[in-house]
Specification:
The structure is a single chain. This protein is of the alpha+beta class. The protein has a 3-stranded antiparallel β-sheet with strand order 1-3-2. The protein is globular. The relative contact order is 0.15.
C-alpha cells in the first residue's frame, strides 16, 4: 500500500493546496502582479510571487499563447554569459463591464 501523508492544514486552518490547485492558482497570481505593476520581467515576477523562475517562464509562455499578456520590450543591461536579456511583460487593462 502506498504511503499517504496525513491531512495537513496550512496556517490559519485552511487545507494545504495540492499540485493541481497550485497549477490553477499560479496563472492568476502572475496576472495579478502584472496588473499591479505597469510591466515586469519574469525575474521580477518570480521574486514578487515566490515562484521558481522556471515556473514563471512556463506560466508566461502559456499566458502569451492564450493572449492574456504581451511582451512589451527588453530591458537593457550588460549581457550575461548564462542568461538571455530580461523581457518585460504586461497584462492588458481589465475590460470595463456595463453596470446594468
Amino acid at each position: 500500500m502506498a504511503y499517504k501523508p496525513p491531512f495537513t492544514r496550512a496556517p490559519g486552518g485552511a487545507p494545504s493546496a495540492g499540485p493541481a490547485t497550485l497549477r490553477r492558482a499560479n496563472p492568476s497570481l502572475v496576472l495579478r502582479e502584472l496588473r499591479e505593476h505597469a510591466s515586469l520581467s519574469r525575474a521580477d515576477i518570480a521574486q514578487a510571487t515566490g515562484l521558481h523562475r522556471a515556473t514563471v517562464s512556463n506560466l508566461m509562455a502559456e499566458l502569451l499563447e492564450r493572449r492574456l499578456v504581451r511582451e512589451v520590450g527588453v530591458k537593457l543591461q550588460p549581457p550575461s554569459a548564462d542568461s538571455s536579456p530580461p523581457r518585460s511583460a504586461s497584462a492588458p487593462p481589465p475590460v470595463a463591464r456595463p453596470a446594468w
